[in-house]
């Protein structure tokens, strides 16, 4: 059993991972500034697992506040999601993104070194890959980003690789997520973005619940079978399992490593919309719009390395099933966590 600090653990992937960690017998501590997440989500995690989670609302960049947590709990490993993630905003406010996303990573590493915590799992992204690579993407493929958000992920990786080289005790797993969607089977937690969603699945869900009128399909002239972009969608609970395996791999002496996390199958935007219509039984209006800057035509993962080295086995390959799990959450919580209601069903 390990004691794991989940930095940014109140968010979408963090909360799903907290559930999986607790159910696997690990101890979880969450630090989050709640800038893009809600405390209610963690309350639901406690409701689902029946376990208490020590929670600290802090700025992860603040080393003094981090030190208080490390002094109080004997932290074995850190999983780091704390960061801004809106691509368009990162183009408009690059300094804000570099300062926050890199600052959080650096502060965590400094305080970990001070307290002798040696295992670091980093939330990276498929966005670090150069768009000219052949599919499926492998971990050793060329990296290059198209926006400051992507560069913060790439630079975060580089900082961790560099620290891992000089600190023989520090071991690091970089997890490159493809497109996480879906929600916990309870339907009690799920994605709940602030404001207008940037990502496809939450936007579709908001059209389905009637919060927005129609979806824009960003570009229909890509070199793909129906002209819309292809992505590799992975169930968030499968991602959560990969984090457990990554922590356990490091705790068992595994060397620093990088892993792609995807299903290895691509779906076009139109296929996702059609599948969402089937899963929800709703019309979900959509219209073609211009391309979104920086969108590559295809992103598909080879996750063979995660399967081989970590023993990771994604359990959800069926897109309709994955979308149905998201719909269970969105249809029962059309305003996300804002309703503040405590479900009696769990
Ligand atoms: C995006 C980010 C990526 C980040 C990931 C996190 C960009 C360019 N990339 O990935 O860096 O790690 O989210 O979850 O933003 N689409 C529409 N209409 C919409 C929204 C999306 O047609 O309203 C299309 C997009 O053009 C894309 C596909 O749906 O082809 C998936 O988009 P999205 O869910 O935003 O994910 P990515 O762009 O792949």
What attributes does this structure have?
346 residues; alpha/beta; seven-stranded parallel sheet; three-stranded mixed sheet; 11 helices; globular; disordered C terminus; binds uridine-diphosphate-N-acetylglucosamine
Describe the protein:
With 346 residues, the protein is α/β, with parallel strands linked by helices. It is built from eleven helices and 14 strands. The strands form four sheets. The protein has a seven-stranded parallel beta sheet, sandwiched between helices. A three-stranded mixed beta sheet has the order 12-9-14. α1 (12-23) packs parallel to α2 (39-49), α7 (200-208) packs across α11 and α9 packs across α11. The longest helix has 22 residues, at 94-115. It starts with a strand and ends in a 14-residue tail after the last helix.
Secondary structure tally, helices: 11
Proportion of helical residues: 25-40%
State the shape.
globular
**Average pLDDT:** 96
Distance between the termini: 26 Å
Poorly predicted regions: 342-346
Report the β-strand fraction as a percent range.
15-25%
Strand-and-helix sequence, N→C?
Answer: EHEHEHEHHEHEEHEEEHEEHEEHH
Main sheet characteristics: 7 strands, parallel
Report the structural category.
Answer: alpha/beta
Count of DSSP strands: 14
Q: Kindly provide the radius of gyration, computed on alpha-carbon positions and rounded to a whole number of angstroms.
A: 19 Å
Spatial order of the strands forming the largest sheet: 3-2-1-4-5-6-11
